[in-house]
Q: What sequence folds into this?
């Protein structure tokens, strides 16, 4: 099955600086790569996603890049703000497991800390 | 609009006791439904997913089972809880495969 590795596990940056979180996946058939943000005590929420037919996607201060050949994708947050502090999860999915839909395989998460 | 309800929010159960967590979705039909477990430092682990009533797929062998008795109802169960079953359980739904998953508020289960 799919295996997703996420680094770093903890990332501390100064407010206003950029943050980059990287993930690798193992299944070359994966074609959907979402990123979720989970604030303390709350449910994970989608912040951005990318599909395998696109190399980069941007939404205001957040961008995601995908390298299918190397099987890795990254989340970039620019001009970080205190409210960006949270745990971020990457995930991958092939969308097919022989008998129906499959779920997302998540990385272990990155605790992003924005230092004032 | 669509909403997902998951309960209870917290639960403390003794080892060997049964478990039943319930999740319901409103405002959509025939959703894909998922149960995930979140352990500290281990991310979100997919436990079960369902594409329709009575259709359950398991991702990992474990002490848990899932059922989908109605289109928008998903239940996570165990006959006898183990200490290792402690964790944060999240129900989620999506319109179809490879689209945004919407998570419930989660259940913090502590097995003592």
A:
């Amino acid at each position: 099955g799919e295996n997703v590795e996420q680094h770093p596990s903890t990332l501390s940056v100064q407010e206003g600086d950029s943050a980059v979180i990287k993930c690798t996946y193992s299944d070359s058939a994966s074609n959907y790569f979402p990123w979720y943000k989970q604030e303390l005590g709350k449910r994970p929420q989608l912040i951005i996603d990318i599909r395998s037919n696109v190399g980069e996607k941007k939404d205001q201060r957040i961008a995601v890049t995908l390298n299918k050949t190397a099987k890795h994708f990254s989340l970039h947050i620019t001009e970080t703000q205190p409210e960006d502090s949270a745990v971020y999860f990457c995930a991958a999915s092939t969308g097919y497991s022989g008998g129906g839909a499959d779920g997302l395989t998540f990385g272990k998460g990155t605790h992003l800390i924005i230092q004032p | 609009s669509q909403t997902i309800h998951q309960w209870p929010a917290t639960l403390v159960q003794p080892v060997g006791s049964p478990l039943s967590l319930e999740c319901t979705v409103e405002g959509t039909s025939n959703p894909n439904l998922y149960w995930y477990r979140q352990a500290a430092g281990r991310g979100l682990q997919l436990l079960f997913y369902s594409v329709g009533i009575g259709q359950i797929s398991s991702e990992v062998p474990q002490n848990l089972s899932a059922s989908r008795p109605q289109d928008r109802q998903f239940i996570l169960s165990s006959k006898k809880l183990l200490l290792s079953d402690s964790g944060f359980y999240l129900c989620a739904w999506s319109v179809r495969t490879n689209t945004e998953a919407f998570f419930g508020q989660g259940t913090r289960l502590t097995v003592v």
The radius of gyration of chain A is 14 Å. Residues 18 and 46 of chain A are 20 Å apart (CA to CA). Residues 97-101 of chain A have pLDDT under 50 and may be disordered.
